[in-house]
Known about the structure:
The protein is α+β, with helices and mostly antiparallel strands.
Amino acid sequence: xxxxxxxxxxxxxxxxxxxxxxxxxxxxxxxxxxxxxxxxxxxxxxxxxxxxxxxxxxxxxxxxxxxxxxxxxxxxxxxxxxxxxxxxxxxxxxxxxxxxxxxxxxxxxxxxxxxxxxxxxxxxxxxxxxxxxxxxxxxxxxxxxxxxxxxxxxxxxxxxxxxxxxxxxxxxxxxxxxxxxxxxxxxxxxxxxxxxxxxx
Length: 200
């Protein structure tokens, strides 16, 4: 029987459109089963700007920028231990690579792990590099575009007598765009980090 996991809450502007909203059981072990509610959002304004080529008027369906958030709940009532948190972080990283693949990103590689500030808390965040290829590619120049992506996991603060949830959040954005499109990659990184911090 599906477990009713509440969706994560994310602070987003109207440029973001919900693409996926589903509840799953991402993994089970001998000691715990994890249930998740995941939401994936796409930047429809950036996609609309890039996906129509000024040179050929060809539309593509390529995803250029997305964010996602997941709320995870354990099958047992217990505080989140360090071993469980480490296990979930590793599984989340593997699942994030799958999400990148599903959205058309390729040549995915983990670049490094950094420290990420979430208010008073500091958590590890993994950085990835990848490429995105428009389908079909509108111009030779846009055949491959570099992308940067991040994912992080943390234990949500719990009220007294309530179970503690795990949260996963991340996303990806292009490092370059066609000259007719206004998008600053530093701003893209800042906005992604702000969105991750807003997840509850």
